[in-house]
Each structure stands twice: as C-alpha cells, then as structure tokens.
Amino acid sequence: MSEMNELAAKLLSEGTVKVVIGYEQGPAGVRPAFITDPAKAETLIFDSRCVQNLAVYLNPRRSHVVTLGKVAVIVKGCDSKAVAGLIREYQVKREDIVIIGVRCGGVVRRADMTAELTADTVSDKCQDCDVREPKFCDHLVLPLPPAPPITTRRADKIAELTKMTPDERWAYWSEQLDRCIRCHACREVCPLCTCVQCIADKNRPQWIPTSATLQGDVMWQITRVLHLAGRCVDCQECERACPLDIPLGLLTRYVAQMVEKRFDYKASDDPSVVAPMGEYRTDDEEGFIL
Amino acid sequence: MTIKMVSHADLAALVAELIAGNTQVIAPVQAKENPAATDYKQIQKLEDATLGTLPRRSIKEFLFPPSEVFLRYKQHKGDVTVEEASLTRPKQVIIGAKPCDVASTDILDKVMNWDYRDELWFARREATTIVSLLCPGLDNNCFCTSVGAGPDSTSGSDAMLIPVDGGYLVELVTEKGKALFGARAKEVTDSKLLAKVEELRQEARKKVEQNLPVVPAEMPEWLAANFANVYWDTLPLRCHGCGACTFVCPTCHCFEIADEREDVGGGVRRRNWDACQTGKFTVHTSGHNPRNTQKERFRQRVMHKFSIYPKRFGDLLCTGCGRCARVCPGGMSIQEAVCQLMEIAGAEPQGNGK
Amino acid sequence: MSSKTPASGTGFEPKIIAFVCTWCTYTGADLAGTSRMQMPPNVRVVRLNCSSRVNPQFVMRAFERGADGVIISGCHPGDCHYSTGNYFTRRRIAIFSELLDFVGVDSRRLTMSWVSASQGGKWRDVVSKAIANVKELGPFHQFSQVEGGEQQ
Amino acid sequence: MNLYQPYLMRVEEVIDETPDVRTLRLAFQDPKVAEEFTFSAGQFGEYSVFGEGESTFCVASPPTRKGFIECSFKMTGRVTRALRRLDVGDTMGFRGPYGNKFPLDTIMKGKNIVFIAGGIALAPVRCVIENVLDLRDQFKDVTIITGARSVADLVYKYKLEEWEKRDDVRLVACVDPGGETPDWKGEIGFVPNVVKKAAPSPVDSYAVICGPPVMIKYTLPVLSELGFPDDHIYTTLENRMQCGLGKCGRCNIGDKYVCKDGPVFTLTQIKNLPPEF
Question: Does one domain contain both A161 and A274?
C-alpha cells in the first residue's frame, strides 16, 4: 500500500471525508473510482494512465456526487488548477473538500493505453506543464517520477496552422468540425463548464442550433472555447472525451496562448488570482482597434 | 444458406460498376487524423476501404442521419407553404459493415414500424443494400454473442463476406444480396473452403463468448422488478452524462425535432439525434424533470436496452458492439453493468420504486 | 442560402453589420448623416446600449445569415457611459477575433473601432475601411454551410 | 405524406382565457382533411409554429363538434410564446391525433361521471365534458369540480357559465383562498377540500382528474376516502414528448410510452409505474 492508499483509508475511517475520488483499474484501462469504504482504499492506484481530471466531479452540476457528502479528491498538478478554478468561481467551497495532490510524471493520452510514456503516447498537456508537484493541496503524496518525454506534436500543429492562410485553416477546421455529432461530451467532461443551463441547451433564443450541421458545430465549438478563455486549465479532457477525435485541444490551447500573450495570464492554481476576462487594464493592447 | 465465392478483383469491379451507376458505396475508411480509427464513408474505389475495422460511428447514420430534414417551409406574413422531405433516396450499398452494426437494422425496424410506419427510415432502408463482413472478434469490449447477435450473425445483412485466400466467400442472405452479386458470385469449387468457414465462425464466436455470458431471457422482467435496486445508486457515479455512448450506439434511436430558421421567411424542421443521458432530454417546461440525476438517466439507458425494448419488441436493444465502453470518458461499461446485474439477478427483487 | 456575386467581379457589394453603442458611435454615425457625409450604403447598423453588449454569438449569427463583415464600435476607453464596459469589450473581442482567425475567418472581416459622438468623420472612415477590406476578401460563405450531417 | 408532416391549420379565433392562457380555434386548410379528421376525447396532438418548433397539447374541443379543433396553452416556452404571437388568419401546423382515449363509449357509458380539474388542466377535461354533454343521454349524473388560483386564472369562464345554467350538470367552481373577487359566487378553497365538501357519490361513478401534480397528489386520497376505487379514477400524464408516435423515446415511464399507452391512465395503472413522472 502506498501512502496515497493509506491516506485515503485514514481520511475515510476518521470520518474526515465520506468519499475519496481517485483512480482504479477498470475493465478497460484506468477509470475514476469513488471509495466510500476505508477497506476498499487499497484499490486506488496512480500511474501514468491516470489521465482523467477528477476535479470535474466537484462541479456542482454533478448532483449525484454532491449528495455523497464531503469529498477528498486526488489531483495532479493540472487538475489542481481546475479545483482552484472552481473555488475561484464560487462553485465549490475550499473548506468542503480535501485535496490530495499527487506528484506526476506525465500521463498518456488515453486511459486505456499502456502505462509506458513515450514521445508518442504522452499527453499533449504534459508538455506545457508547470505544476508536476501540486502546490494547491492539503496533502501531497507519492514520490516525483522522472519528467515526461518531450514531444512537440501540439506546438508543431499550432505552428503549422498559424502559418496557413485563413482559407486553408477553414478547410482544416471545417473538415474536423464536420465530424461533430453534437454529443456535447466536450462540455460534460470539462471541469469548468459549470453553467446550470448551457447556452447550447437554451432555446429562447436558440443561439446554437441543435442540428449536427457544420453551422451548428462551428457555432458550438467557438462558443465553448470562448467561454473557456482565461478559464481553461489545459487538462485536455475535451479532446480526450471526443468520440470522433476532433482536436479540440488545439482550440483551447491556442486561446490560452493568446490570453497569455495579451493579458499575461496563465492558468493558475491560486484561487485568489482573478481570471483575465473578468478584469481589465486601462492599458490593454489595442492595436487591432481602429 | 447460399454460399458462393467472389474474387477480390470481382468485388472491386462490382464496386466500380455500382459507383458508375450512381450508387453510393459506403465502407470503413481510415480517418485522416487518426490512422488507428476508421469511419464509414463514401468510397470511390474498393482500395479506399479499410475492411475489417470497427468504425467510430455505426452504420445507423446512413439510415437515420444525425440531422434529417422533415420539411422546409416558406413564410410570408401569416401564410406558410411547406415542402415535404422527399422519400426517394439515392441507392446506397454498405460494404464491410460489422455484423454488430448491421444487426441493429432489424432491431430498429420494429420501433420504426410500431403502429406508425416511419417512411423516412424505411425509404432509406429500402434504398440500402448491406454487405457485412465476418468479424473475427475485436477485443474484450465485444459482447455481441451475449445479446443475440454474433460476429458471424447475418441478421440485417443482405449478404456477408467471409475473407478466404484469394477473395471472399459470400453468404447470400436476401434476394437483394443475390441481385447485388449476380453472376459475380461463383459456385464454390473447393469443399474444404466451406469447412474452413465453419471453423472461422466458431473461432470468432468463441473469442467473443469469453467476454460475457449470454444475457438470460428473464433479464427484462427482472430489471423491471428491480427499478429501485440499490445497485443503481452506486453504478453511475463516474458517468459524466455526456451521451457519447448513445451517439455512437448502433441501436440508440432517440431524437428530437427542431425548427431552425435559415433565412428571413424560411426555414427547416429537422430531427436530430438526442441522448437520454442529458438532463434536457426529459425536462418539462415547468422545470420539473422526471429523470433529474445521472442515476435515473443511466438506469433509463440500461432499462431501455435490456427491459423496455425487449418487453415491447422482443429484441434486446443492444448488439454488443462495445462502442459505448470504448468512447466513455468516465470509464463506464454497459457490459460490466449487465454482468453485475446478472450476478445480482439471482437475489431478491427490490421493487419498482413504489 | 443567399446568392452572391463572386469576389472577382466589380459587382460585389458586401453586406456589413455594425453593432454600435448608442451613446458614442450611434450618435457619431448620426452626426455623419446630419453632416451629409457621403458613405457607401453597405452597412446595416444595430444599436445596442454598450459595445460590451456584443455577444460573440451576435457576430457569428450575422456571418451565418449572410453578412460579409462585421463592425463593432463603442466609446473610447475611459468614455464608456457605463464606466468600464468597453474595457471588457476590448479584452473579449481581442480573443474572439484571434479565435475566429485561427478557425479560418480572416480577421479583417471583423472591424473594431472606437468612435465618439463627435467623430462623424471617423465613422465614415471606419465604414470605408471595413468595406474596402471585405471587398478585397470577397463574399463570406463559410458559416452558412450546412453540409456534413445533413443528407438531403 | 410522411409521419412528421403536419396538417396546415388556419387560426380562426383567438380567445384570451386568462392573462397567460390563450385558446386558439383552428380550422384545417385542406377541406378534405377537415372532412375526414376524427379523434377521441383524451387524445393529443403536436402543434407547431414554423421556425419555432412543436409543442404537445391535448385537443380541448370535443370530437363531437366537427370541422375545427381548439387548443389552450399557457405561455411558458419558446413554442407557446410563438403561438401567442399568431393572429386570426395565420397558418400553423398540427399533427395528430395521438395517444389513447377516455373509454367514454365502453367502460364509462351509462355511469355517473365526476370531473375534477385544476388550472389550465380544465382544457383536457373540457374535451371530455363537452363530449359527455353532447351525448348527455348516454350518461347519468355529471359533476364538474374545477378550481384555479384566482378568479382571473379560471379558464373557459364562458363555458363555466354555460354549464352552470344547465340543470343536468352539477358545477362546483372554486378558487384558492385569497384568489376570490368581491363578486365571486363560487367556492373558496383548495380543490382537495372542495372535493371533500362536494362529496360526489362513488356509486356507479368514474372520476376524471387533471391538474398540477400537487393538486393530484392531495386529491387522490380524498377520492379514495370517498370510496372511489383506483380503477375508477382516470387521469392523464404529461411527460415531455416530441414525436407523439412512440419513436423518439423520451416519454416512457418504465415500459409504458405515455404517447402511445397514454396519456390516459387509471390510478391502478399509475400505481404500477415506476416513479418517473
């Protein structure tokens, strides 16, 4: 038993929390686990396959998780930013949750892959990671694994796209987004999509058509990505969840880069930092304005 | 059972001939951005196809498109003229479909022809010829043999291809299938080949059968009597409620009807795929929602597939393709749920929630 | 979809939707009119309380329904009738325009400007610039495409 | 014509029932359809405004009066708002009739009928009431108990007056305490209490009850107390529907599709359903 399992068992048996949300081995790869019985705490695992962002289960929209009682959640560095985001936006109270940080050496792209990290299997999000050792947590467990292998896959793709003409970019994106079947998995797995009623579900007015036409798909993705501007923590869950492998991570990543460039803001694991779209500076760059 | 032989060259020639005759030919095609994935897509020649893989989306979209036009209207002040969707559909042939995908068509025929006949579905059904391909069994997410289908099932197929040396054996199931192959399907001269077919079938079945026992016939009734089983409380915790499972499912057929304006004074009414896993599926205008949490929604999905549908129409609303488990971002698996349900099914029923 | 003449011909007259704030730009545009400044007739003005009322959906819907270009215009920074509205507009539209560009909509189709109530002349210039840009780019049809899921 | 193709209807008359409830009288544009169209009390249809969508309501007018249908709706969502914008002469869509019916020609024939309705739910009940009144000699005593939050919220006031005048109908109209006006002559009280007070006889009687869930919840025990057996109590269920044809898959409760097996259920049937409504 690792210190993570012992800690989980301790928190549960002492009654500090009612449920520990962590990772377990499922029938096909690693998956989220909800441990309520201290005796079951030993089934928790953590390795490079633990790609899911468990902060999503703290989202108050998960009413069926909220009813379980006080929660301890196992987070990687990137996930701790999402928890901070939820606290920043008053979706969760800091005192209502126990955060167990795990030191992380990078994760693979999909939970059903093998644990071996190579330049090919490592997730894109790990390349731009600055919190392999979470700071925003109550407990920090497990030793720090070696740094993840380096891949420039995502950076290359963004560079390639930005070099294209707008028409070429449209050709690329219209082909990608045309596959969209509007299942909204990208929204549901996003820890920061906290709207009780999403604009895509509203019909008065119906800004976003429900039809899986290119028109609706583009409208939906642009809207979604804009809503996440300055809030996205680059956990890449949207891209992972997409059943049709649409490279949604490129959109969120590009916007995050623009936010950083213009407003000097990077997704933060400090809940007291103000998100960039909710504030302004009088001297913001405005070269694009006539 | 008529089994004939068709050579590679003949199959390619058939595809070329169909395309020349303005028939759309659809087959699994490797996805550009992900070499490991395929999609059913229109092909221009047989070489475009990557036969044998399980595409990301099922063939249902060619019979029941994600977004299908019911009517277009033009409006001028209070007057409306309506143009109905055409019921003449271009002929299409789907080649290399997975038996689990194809099995869904016969199942869905029942709901589409229940009192009211959905001509939009049947127009596409009639314009479509489906040639499936014997599946060797893919991975441990497969459980077609447990739900009445199988890797060698010809249910829904007009013909089934069985890969052998030098080409394919083709099992001609329907008249449509016979007509499609016509003289290209030659008599099988080598009797050993037929024995080989049986061997391939058994092998495939055996591979899939390891994954899950057959769902017992009592399951629908048992589920109905266990609507309030405590099992439902623990199961869907990790479910995100995204509905990706329903969208890739070959048998999920729920839809919504939506009007969209296209221009001033004109627009379109469509039906779009919808998913029982989302909250807005059942919410009343008043805000009341009969299935308010993920527990109820996931239970509904399992119930619909393994209790409601079979009680109404006889067939389980599942073909065991395993796509739902493969795409689930939360690591849920209906196969696992069914397995666990079968385990506890021996125990006392826990009532229907009253 | 509305039919448009091809970009190459001189006959292409773009449709441009302008979302303007009522306090500065609308008054400025009004001034341009009462001062009898000559302006091309391609712009349709939608008056809003503040430029920060412009939801990105407005812009996308305009493109969807046949606009070739969009102008968003409000008060100069510091002059907002609601004190700080246009500062938020500035941040939001900056990101929105970058994202549109990344998806393949030339950023010159989306013009943003500050035009005060006294700047009738500037409004004329903004409009002329926007029209010139869009004329160069040609008609915009991308967002009105529906192909893909629809099989009819 | 495919299944989902609506009949085109012309709005013949617009009646404002309450500040937010409106009734539309619709005529079929195609005279042949108008001739052939029939339905039964309790069935519903999909009313559509082009460009806005479809919405499910019962037919409020009785099947015994031909050539037109009426629907009453409360302005709440996108479609009902659009319906409210329609004027006399405008075109809208209707498809139906769908669902089962009240067994007026079989089980209920020759019996006493007690109607209980709350608020806008008088609309589905009105269809049955008028059907019964049009065939008055086929039924015994008819009792109508209807309530609303306030006098202003009472729908079909002109119908209530008409029924009041008939001596073969017992009408009890009530409003919630506080909802009365100085010249209100009916009862004051909540529907369950009024039912208790009015105490319709359960002998050889059938009850038809429609209303908001909270009203139903408290009225059913009263009916049981009065001696109505469960299978003599009929009500309608309103789950969200889109197709009305048993295809779109959202209205089911357990293995019952409300759009096909319903919307009319007896209390016995409802008690056997899982609690998903």
Answer: yes
Q: How far apart are CA C77 and CA A214, in angstroms?
A: 37
Q: Is C128 among the domain residues?
A: yes
Are residues B201 and B229 part of one domain? no
Do residue B263 and residue C152 have CB atoms under 8 angstroms apart?
no
Shared-domain flag, residues B89 and B164: yes
Closest CA to A41 of A17, A70, A66: A17
Helical H runs in chain D?
Answer: 31-36, 78-84, 122-134, 157-165, 191-198, 213-226, 258-261, 267-271
Interface of B with D in 264-283 (CB under 8 A): 267, 269, 271, 274, 276, 281-283
Asked whether residue B33 falls in the same domain as residue B182, the answer is yes
From chain C, pick out residues whose CB is under 8 angstroms from the CB of A226: 56, 92, 95-96, 99
Asked whether residue A148 is assigned to any structural domain, the reply reads no
Report which of A182, D56, A56, D261 is spatially closest to residue B275, judged by C-alpha positions.
Answer: A182
**D53:A203 CB<8 A:** yes
Q: How many domains does chain C have?
A: 1
Q: For residue D5, what are its two tokens?
A: 């193709």
Q: Confidence band (pLDDT; 50, 70, 90) for B350?
A: low
C79 shares contact with chain A (CB less than 8 Å): no
N-term to C-term CA, chain C: 15
Domain that residue B307 falls in: 219-344
| pLDDT for the residue B351 | 56
Residue spans of the domains in chain D: they are 7-98, 112-236
> Quick check: D255 and D276 in contact, CB under 8 A?
no
Domain count for chain B:
2
Residue C3, domain member (yes or no): no
Q: CB-based burial of residue D190 (10 Å sphere; 0-12 exposed, 13-18 middle, 19+ buried)?
A: buried
Average pLDDT, chain B: 89
Alpha-carbon distance C135 to nearest alpha carbon in chain B (angstroms):
23
CB contact under 8 A, C145 and A222: no
Domain hosting residue C120, numbered range: 16-144
- With touching defined as 3 or more inter-chain CB pairs under 8 Å, the answer for chains A and C is yes
Does the residue A136 lie in any domain? Answer: yes
Q: Distance from D95 to chain A by nearest Cα, in Å?
A: 22
ipTM: 0.89
Task: Give burial (CB, 10 Å; 0-12/13-18/19+) of C91.
Answer: buried
pLDDT score of B18: 93
Is the CB of D167 inside 8 Å of chain B's CB atoms? no
D237 neighbors D277 (Cβ within 8 angstroms) = yes
Residues B260 and B162 in one domain: no
Nearest to A228 by CA among A49, A89, A61: A89
Is C2 part of a structural domain of the chain?
no
Q: Which residues in chain A have Cβ-Cβ distances shorter than 8 Å to C114?
A: 289-290
By mean pLDDT, which of B3-7, B86-90, B342-346, D200-204 is the weakest?
B342-346
Residues in chain D: 277
Six-digit token string for D44: 């519903």
Of A225, A227, A234, the residue nearest A266 (C-alpha): A234
Residues (pLDDT < 50) of chain A are none
Instruction: Write the single-letter amino acid at C12.
Output: F
> What's residue A1's pLDDT?
66
Structural domains counted in chain A: 2
Q: Which of C1, C2, C150 sits opposite B69 (nearest CB)?
A: C150
In sequence order, what are the beta bridge partners of C111?
Answer: C71
Of the options 2.40.30.10, 3.40.50.300, 1.10.3660.10, 3.40.50.920, the CATH number for the domain spanning D7-98: 2.40.30.10
In a domain, A286, yes or no: no
Of C111, C108, C135, C136, nearest to C125 by C-alpha is C111
The verdict on A159 and A202 lying in the same domain is yes
From CA B272, how far away is CA B280, in angstroms rounded? 14
